[in-house]
Amino acid sequence: MDLETLKTELNKYGQSELTALIDAAATISKIDLGLVSKLYDMAKEGKAGGAEGAITPIPVTVAAELAPALRRKYIEAGEELIRKGGFAAVTMAGGQGTRLGHNGPKGTFDIGVEEHSLFEIQAKRLLRRAALCGAAQIPWYIMTSEENDAATRAFFVENGWFGYDPANVRFFTQFMLPMVDFDGKIVRDTPVSVKMGADGHGGIFRAMHARGIVSDMKERGIKYAFIGGIDNVLVKLCDPLFIGFACLNRYPCAGKSLIKRDPYEKAGVFCLKDGRPYVVEYTEISDEMAKAVNEKNEFIYGDAHILCNIFSVEALEDAGSEGLPYHVAVKKTKFVDADGQIVMPDKPNAYKFEAFIFDAFCRYEKMGILRVKREDEFAPVKNREGEDSPETARELYRSAKERNMLD
């Protein structure tokens, strides 16, 4: 889009203040102003996602309670799919390590174990599983952001691709959306830039479709793909049990869960919405639902979604071609006022729009939920200190390694 056309579009949608940002023209030209306008209208009307519909508990399979014969059957099916090249892994790694005090992509962060980065942890796990299955390397797709894509690619080159053949690793960037103030104006966070943010983990389907990732999977003969985040150091992104569980039951999608620690743990929980699989995000769950227990004093809605999901390639194509709905969050963010001064507000002042990966679940009549143990599969690195920090993740990682639970 040339500059004059861009100015016309900005004026059309009431964003004329941005025409002065010549240096930001490349960024602004990528903004879907029509979509932003629709999202603002949605926010003003109070249509902020949420769990509208009849919510009921969802059936769950407990991994530790599987009969030995069935467990072996699932594992063998998963190993066979890996061996035949029908499985791929997708890692969401678009974030920076700012909250950890790290200057660079979050995947380059070192938690202080033998593997010197979160990327190396996942690379070694994939390579190890392929070797155990007697397979070629498992195709690995990594979603980055415009902010960290170049640095991520350079990090892989600097580290010899962690032993991976570059032909089996493919990077792709997620989409970005601007934040919008309560008057519908796109927020400027400096006099020469606009406030952009990732479109949420649910945006991965749109990105995989638009960037040719799903097409590449189909060309390779891949049938199922795991999707998970970079910051969980215990994520089993090539677990034969989980893979076999999904493919033998012909689930279009499957997810791992674990029992939440307390009613208010910051994690969405699996459920059924109008009879279809869904996840109620922790920001949208009611107090009554969060505390509800059964006669055994167990949480009725206690299976937390830990961003460990498997999708058939057909499901990925289906969700990517149409995209997912956006949820609205009210945030506090710095902005440039009418006088060109940067202001840090003392209360929320803008809308942020995100798609959630679990909104893909309700497209299907059935979904497999495999409940696993927290200490074996969930050690996120989110905070510099305290809970979910490098220290806690490192301890959990070392414990799992001692118990031979990393694979």
Characteristics:
alpha/beta; eight-stranded mixed beta sheet; single chain; 407 residues; 30% helix; Spore Coat Polysaccharide Biosynthesis Protein SpsA, Chain A; three-stranded antiparallel beta sheet
Can you put this structure into words, describing what you see?
With 407 residues, the chain is α/β, with parallel strands linked by helices. The chain has a single domain, classed as Spore Coat Polysaccharide Biosynthesis Protein SpsA, Chain A, CATH 3.90.550. Helix content is 30%, strand content 21%. It has 13 helices and 20 strands. It has helices at 3-12, 25-28, 33-44, 68-83, 118-132, 149-158, 204-210, 213-220, 240-248, 287-291, 313-322, 374-377, 390-402; strands at 55-56, 61-62, 87-92, 140-144, 169-173, 176-178, 180-181, 188-190, 193-194, 196-198, 224-229, 253-259, 269-273, 276-280, 303-312, 327-331, 335-336, 342-343, 350-354, 368-371. Strands 2-20-12-15-11-3-4-5 form an 8-stranded mixed beta sheet, with helices on both faces. The chain has a 3-stranded antiparallel beta sheet with strand order 1-13-14, with no helix packed on it. Strands 7-19-16 form a 3-stranded antiparallel beta sheet, with helices on one face. Helix 7 (204-210) packs across helix 11 (313-322). It is globular, with a radius of gyration of 22 Å. The termini are far apart.
